Amino acid sequence: MNKKDIIELIENLKKSYPDATCSLDFETPFQLVVAVMLSAQCTDERVNKTTPKLFERCKTIQDFSDIDITELEELIHPCGFYKNKAKNIKLCAKQVLENFNGEVPHTMEELMTLAGVGRKSANVIMLEVFKDPQGIAVDTHAKRISNLIGLSKHKEPEKIEQDLLKILPKEYFKDVNHLLVWHGRNTCIARKPKCDICSIKKFCNYYSNNH
Ligand code: SF4
Question: Rounded to an integer, what distance in angstroms lies between the CA atom of residue 155 and that of residue 177?
Answer without folding.
Answer: 17
